[in-house]
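Fold Annotation — chain and its backbone

Encoding — discrete vocabulary of local shapes
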Amino acid sequence: MPVKRKAAKRSAAKLPAKVRAKLSPAKRKQIAAHQAKRKAARRGNPPKIHLTRYGKSVCGRKGPGTGDAIKWNTRPALKCQACMKRLHAMAEKTAKAAIKNPKRAGKRPRRRNGIEGAAALYEKFHQAPAKKVTTKLVATHRHSALADLGRLAELFVRVDRGDTRKLIFAESGSGVVRLAASEDGGQLYFIGGDQAIDLGRLGLAATLPKDHVIVGEASGIAYETAKGFDGHKPAIYVHKFGEGGKPRPALGYDVRNKRLYLVGGAYQVKREGIVH
């Protein structure tokens, strides 16, 4: 039985006169656009990529797009220049409105947003008003996946005064914090749950306002997990940092997002556990 082959798309100019006469103007335009796109691809001139916001391109035109501004910014040869101009115009408009910061008569002044606060600090520091806003897109590395090690139970940290404080975490519910590690075992992470700490009780209130603070030197960690050499029964494992005189990691705290993290240290996650 003969196999029917799908007819290849042809431009309206190459179609027979009878067929071309039956085509609507919209169909002819569609075929012409398709042919132009294929020619551009063959010439090594791929279509420009738009920056999308809420499912639509910034410039309002149709075409391939991405909502990831970082990836879009790292491909300058393919960026839609109309989107770039529109993006700069939007940033300039926002900056001008923030710098003016008008107060409507008889009504409470609006709360300052990030741009208004930055403009006020700029003027205070330079003794001159800010005139523009510069937008910088910075690419950052994030692990696509982490290895789950168990439930974080306790953290032991030595604060500036030299005494050791114990931070206890939830045993169940939404407040549970998971202990995880990078794929190479060189970095521990605390994922999710309730990681908020009282900086005042730790004597760190005087360091605020800060986005990040160093709580102290992490001297130990306790976590609950199940391992094969213990018959896969849940148990609490305690690891002391700095064994053998090796450096301990510092315990940092993200004040705005209420997240804990470790910096440095000579530990490594291996089959037998967290070792030095």
Summary: The mean pLDDT is 81. The chain is about 20% helix and 25% strand. The radius of gyration is 30 Å. The chain has three domains: 12-42, 47-140, 147-275.
